[in-house]
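Re: beginner question about structure tokens

> Can someone show what the tokenized structure looks like for a real chain? I only ever see the sequence side.

Sure, here's an example I had lying around. Input first:
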Amino acid sequence: MQWYQVKEQAAGEKRLMLMWYIYKLFGKKAVNFVAFFVTFFAFIFAKDVRGYSKKYLTVISPLTGIKPTVINQFRHFLSYTHVLTDKIEIFPNEFDKNKIIFESEAAKEQLYSDLDKRKGVFFLCAHVGNTDVMRTLFINNTRHPDLKVNVFLSKNQCKIFNGFMKKIAKEIPLTPYPVEDIGVDTAIKLKDSLDSGSIAFIAADRVPEGNSNAATFEGEIFGHKVDFPVGSFKLAHLMEVPVYFIIALKDKNDTYKIYLQKYEYTDIVDLQEAYIKFVEKTVLISPLQFYHFYDFFKD
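And the corresponding structure tokens:
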């Protein structure tokens, strides 16, 4: 089963709006309390998804010591739930930017230096942690107050949750692109935007719905074979701007730590290999923040 074949679990517009009202009245602790029980019941009835979590935990167990027990599977689910509840603060711009730190000050300054040049920056992210927390820095960034953001999203997956996020979000200068429709026109439009000093984000760890085998390449992560989308890397290469790998992991005391790596690549194959190594290294820092609840590994 691919990621786009997995149905939304425990989602519903009324339930999500109820969580929003609980947050506004009682705060995020109350939301997390309610979300615990919602996650528990979703976990019970999500047999297939539990199986994929178990497979992932089995793969990383020798590297992390985290055994594929039912309790750890639930912890994996709950970690994802906490990321979603954080978004209830992030999207309306109510998350404290002081809770976001960069793992490397040198990498942070390098990024800000590239942004200062107004030549555009391309980010390759992953479904690990919560890259959406970067919205908080974009909105409150006095150094680059007019920064425009381009984001590639799936138009078909998580429609209910994405619709809810759109309702509560504070407007920022953001241009969304559906990953299913990337073509020549998309590349031209994005190139013009980046050349004006904007930035772009695209996840490079999931094959878009409808892609053929020709649009994928086979990589290896944790010793297992995985299909990755060629298009994300081709697009980054075509833009001719600085490319960064980025992952935001939830840390202690409700904080996030940004892991950032600029990559001076020689060709697309080299870029692909470096990205996979970056994701693999970052996942091992916080293994339960790996959010691929489908048959990610081919073997």
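Each token stands for a local structural state, so reading them left to right follows the chain. The chain has a mean pLDDT of 87.
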